[in-house]
Write a structure and sequence with these properties.
CATH class of the domain at 87-174 and 217-252 in chain B: Alpha Beta
Structural class of chain A: mainly alpha
GO cellular component, one term (chain B): extrinsic component of mitochondrial inner membrane
Helix content of chain B: 25-40%
Mean pLDDT of chain A: 85
Oligomer: heterodimer
Low-confidence stretches of chain B: 1-23, 32-47
Number of domains of chain A: 1
Mean pLDDT of chain B: 80
Radius of gyration of chain A: 21 Å
Function (chain B): Methyltransferase required for the conversion of 2-decaprenyl-6-methoxy-1,4-benzoquinol (DDMQH2) to 2-decaprenyl-3-methyl-6-methoxy-1,4-benzoquinol (DMQH2).
Number of strands of chain A: 0
Shape of chain B: globular
Radius of gyration of chain B: 17 Å
Strand order of the largest sheet of chain B: 5-1-4-6-7-9-8
Largest sheet of chain B: 7 strands, mixed
CATH superfamily of the domain at 87-174 and 217-252 in chain B: Vaccinia Virus protein VP39
Number of helices of chain A: 13
Enzyme class (chain B): transferase
Largest sheet of chain A: none
Main location (chain B): mitochondrion
Low-confidence stretches of chain A: 12-38
Catalytic activity (chain B): 2-methoxy-6-(all-trans-decaprenyl)benzene-1,4-diol + S-adenosyl-L-methionine = 5-methoxy-2-methyl-3-(all-trans-decaprenyl)benzene-1,4-diol + S-adenosyl-L-homocysteine + H(+)
């Protein structure tokens, strides 16, 4: 065992001497404890990655997401590997807003374990909580399908992107968009304008590739302009403490944000 | 057990092998793990609280088997695709060379351990094989021995179940002998492979384990000595692809 370990150590030291190679820690994330000075994970599920790995992941995940649209995990990876700069901007925006700052402080999470579904059920019709629940039911989705962040190398920014993901369903509810491909694209356009995340922009631009000519027509002529308009008009949606607004009427919230009714009725609209 | 005429020799890596030598009696052994319901004998529990390596991690010895099992549960579905992607198809060449070296003939009793999808297979444990002594002409293990918790025990078992005159053949990742290639190989291993694992199979960690476990495995010479320690004679090895893999061979006299 000792000879194996010294052998490994020799090899690791050899690697570090070489110019042009990424830092040892990034090269062998998590486990290269043999040299003692390694940057380990910053948060649970964190996988530290070198710039080269991030670039490869970004390219690979983009290609795979296009190739197999059911690989939602690839969309998440794309977001994480390309979003660092934008996440900083978003985080700063949150810091400057009182409600956003509170969210950063308290780090609420939206999942079945943190939501009191019974309470939401009992809320009046038309309230945010009740409508959010209805959205989950009708589209048969659960807030728990969001994978944890792994490739963001900053623990606060990791939360910001996690929050963005968990708020995504809220946006569906606010915009009245279903979870079919058309609805998702519309929400992506809204998010792209709102957040500036490269992943949202890419999704907004490339998502429509798979659409029929008719859907594309409706999308381009009506839905995208509407989504962009609302996205620009509304304040930053990450600054809303949704968990404190369950009782607020959805209509009132939409008014507060300047979100108008969708221009066309998308099939399957809740 | 007579193999059907069109039987193919399936490797540890599933569908990568070339067509089999017809008529050879092949028995594949799928490694079982503690608790597997069909294993002939369970892995005896270790009394000492020792630790071992799991890639670059250190884990209690009795946990290693389970952790490796989880890795392979996870990688099973995309195994062949990943092998092709990671090695650019070269793993097939390596396996062909192993097959060529062993030159099985009709009637050869061959045991392929950690065989994945074998033809007639038995669930067992490489460290405690469910076979009698002196049973097989050839024992092969391709890309399997690296993952065994007690390699020395697996080697001893290999020795036990081979007939006198029988041959042990192991195809496994080894140490690269050329410094430049070694650098490139390490770069590729650590930078690209886990990314491939994530993109293709949605599994970074298993492929991180893979590249780490390769570096933990003894060098050609060290492994040769281990094989000799298990009682084999005329132990030789042949490095392939600058030592990325090696085929070790030994005989039971």
């Amino acid at each position: 065992m000792a000879t194996l370990l010294s052998h490994v150590l020799r090899r690791l030291r050899g690697l570090r001497r070489l110019p042009g190679l990424p830092r040892l820690a990034a090269e062998m994330p998590l486990r290269a404890r043999s040299d003692g000075a390694v940057a380990g994970p910053l948060y649970s599920h964190h996988i530290p990655t070198s710039p080269l790995q991030k670039a490869l992941l970004a390219a690979g995940s983009a290609a795979m997401a296009l190739y197999d649209p059911y690989r939602h995990d690839m969309v998440a990876v794309l977001g994480e590997t390309t979003g660092h700069r934008t996440l900083k901007v978003l985080r700063d925006r949150m810091r400057r807003d009182p409600e956003g700052a509170q969210i950063l402080q308290e780090r609420p999470r939206i999942s079945t374990s943190t939501l009191d579904l019974g309470k939401l059920q009992s809320l009046p019709e038309g309230s945010l909580g009740r409508e959010y629940l209805r959205f989950l039911d009708v589209n048969r989705v659960s807030p728990d399908t969001r994978a944890p962040t792994r490739f963001v190398d900053d623990e606060e920014l990791a939360y910001v992107i996690q929050r963005y993901r968990e708020v995504h369903d809220m946006l569906h509810t606010l915009l009245g968009m279903p979870t079919n491909i058309l609805g998702e694209i519309v929400v992506k356009w809204f998010e792209a304008v709102q957040t500036g995340l490269p992943m949202c922009i890419l999704g907004a631009l490339f998502g429509p590739i798979q659409l029929s000519a008719q859907s594309l027509q409706v999308l381009v002529s009506e839905l995208i302009p509407w989504a962009v308009q609302n996205g620009r008009r509304a304040p930053c949606v990450l600054n809303l403490y949704y968990e404190r607004r369950w009782e607020q009427s959805l209509r009132a919230l939409r008014e507060e944000l300047g979100i108008t009714a969708p221009p066309v009725h998308i099939q399957g609209l809740a | 057990m007579a193999a059907p005429k069109s039987c193919a020799l399936w490797s540890y890596c599933g569908r990568g092998w070339s067509r089999a030598m017809r008529g050879c009696q092949l028995l594949g052994l799928r490694s079982s793990w503690p608790g597997a319901p069909l294993s002939a004998r369970l892995l005896s529990q270790e009394k000492r609280a020792t630790e071992t390596h799991f890639g670059f991690e250190t884990v209690p010895e009795e946990e290693k088997g389970g952790k490796v099992y989880q890795v392979f549960e996870s990688v099973a579905k995309k195994y062949d695709v990943m092998n092709d992607m990671m090695s650019l198809g070269i793993h097939r060449v390596w396996k062909d060379l192993l097959l060529w070296k062993m030159r099985p003939l009709p009637g050869t009793q061959l045991l392929d351990v950690a065989g994945g999808t074998g033809l007639a297979w038995v669930l067992g444990d490489a460290e405690e094989l469910p076979f009698d002594d002196d049973k097989f002409d050839i024992y092969t293990i391709a890309f399997g021995i690296r993952n065994v918790t007690h390699i020395d025990q697996a080697l001893q078992e290999a020795h036990r179940v081979l007939k006198p005159g029988g041959r042990f053949l192991c195809l496994e990742f080894s140490q690269v002998n050329n410094p430049l290639i070694s650098r490139l190989y390490d770069l590729y291993s650590f930078q690209v492979i886990p990314v491939l694992g994530e993109v293709i199979a949605g599994d970074w960690k298993s492929y991180q384990y893979l590249v780490e476990s390769i570096r933990r495995f003894p060098s050609q010479e060290e492994f040769k000595e281990m094989i000799e320690d298990a009682g084999f004679h005329k132990v030789t090895y042949e490095s392939l692809t600058s030592g990325i893999v090696a085929i070790h061979s030994g005989f039971k006299l």
